[in-house]
Amino acid sequence: MTKAHGAPWPVKFCIQSIKLASIMAILQILQYPDERLHTIAKKVVQVNDVTRKLVQDMAETMYAAPGVGLAATQVNVHEQIIVVDVSETHDELLVFINPEILHRSGEQEGEEGCLSVPGIYENVRRADKISVRALNQQGESFTLDAEGFLAVCIQHEVDHLHGRVFVEYLSQLKQSRLRAKLKKRRREAM
Ligand code: NI
Hints:
By secondary structure, the protein is α+β, with helices and mostly antiparallel strands. The protein has one domain (3-189): Peptide deformylase (Peptide Deformylase, Alpha-Beta Complex), CATH 3.90.45. It has helices at residues 11-20, 49-64, 148-161, 172-189, and strands at 69-71, 81-84, 94-105, 108-114, 117-126, 129-135, 141-147. The longest helix is centred in the C-terminal third of the chain and has 18 residues, at 172-189. Bound molecules: nickel (II) ion.
């Protein structure tokens, strides 16, 4: 997910990202309307070093984009893993493996963007508060209560694992206009 009006990266982060660049990898992000974005992700059976390496690369990819959330689906890995960091300082990474939203309450509407749909921001209605259960990078189960923008971000990323992109909440007319616009933009970029 991307923030509609993001602040520029602090210098501290830039230096750190150069240091980490040698051991991490920036992954390619699938672009809507790529069919693979509709793949349903499978549960991670065992959290191991391969999982942790993927999490690292996903985080690096998200920070570099820059974005505030990324689902494995978006980098064409169809396993239930998401990373989120909505902090201003970009140093509060949250990792959810096999996330499950247990409760939703309230309602909020806000502008969302997505690294798979660059440059498009649309209002989406979501639950205001959620409770999510997941595994951490050590394979331990935890439950987190989230509200506001963090809750939006988690719901947006969990949707990706179910093959759903945020623009699919828009009306059919808006969606077909959007697809035409993106097709045109891609043709022009070639
Ligand atoms: Ni997204």
